[in-house]
């Protein structure tokens, strides 16, 4: 399959990446990007394509902050609510270390933007006010200047969910334009894709009950994609939906190119042999006209080698 990436003289445009991904029935599992830490910065819109340099932050500060985040391996994300708030008296900032039992999120109020450069991006705990484990944050990507699909599919989700006492935020790019609308749950690090206004209500309710919604589940940003896929495979095989019911423990490459992933669950451990291939080139980000061949995962038969009953 060939995909054009630029508009022709006749005005032809490529299909939206999210619609194309749906039409190809591209699997969601194993598509969450790896993120070791998050820096969420409240910044009322509009947002430019380059979130830190084109979104009404001081561009010099944006340059310095982008460099510090890159060095620390932290993903900076701008956030806002539908209720536009004046940040002259200070902006809300969240530091997040994603994880299962050890994940946490802390909130602080930054009164001067230069204070953003003083934050310790090694993310030691205790910098801000720790959020209660039951107060998960939900980011919905609506970054239209980065990819039009994110705004088109994300805004109805934000409108449907509402503010929810400061737990739901619009966000800049979080990864996976073609899976819009994307929702990230923090501090668990769980990614969901192809979320609608109706399914978002169910996803948030189930997350608060400690359960995943497998239909929209992309994986956790704490795990490599091959481990995300193995986790999803065991969940589906054993009908396990608890947030921490299934934990990938290790991934060992095999001589034949497959990967053996050991996965723990309440009844023991299973081994999933994951085969990785490359999909045909396709549009993966419509606003940038990006064409890529994403990884495609499948479980080599049998899907799960059970070592627990």
TrEMBL record:
Record InterPro entries: Aim32/Apd1-like, Thioredoxin-like_sf
Superkingdom: Bacteria
UniProt-listed PANTHER family: ACTIN PATCHES DISTAL PROTEIN 1 (PTHR31902), SLL1203 PROTEIN (PTHR31902:SF22)
Protein name in UniProt: Sucrase ferredoxin
Lineage: Bacteria, Bacillati, Actinomycetota, Actinomycetes, Mycobacteriales
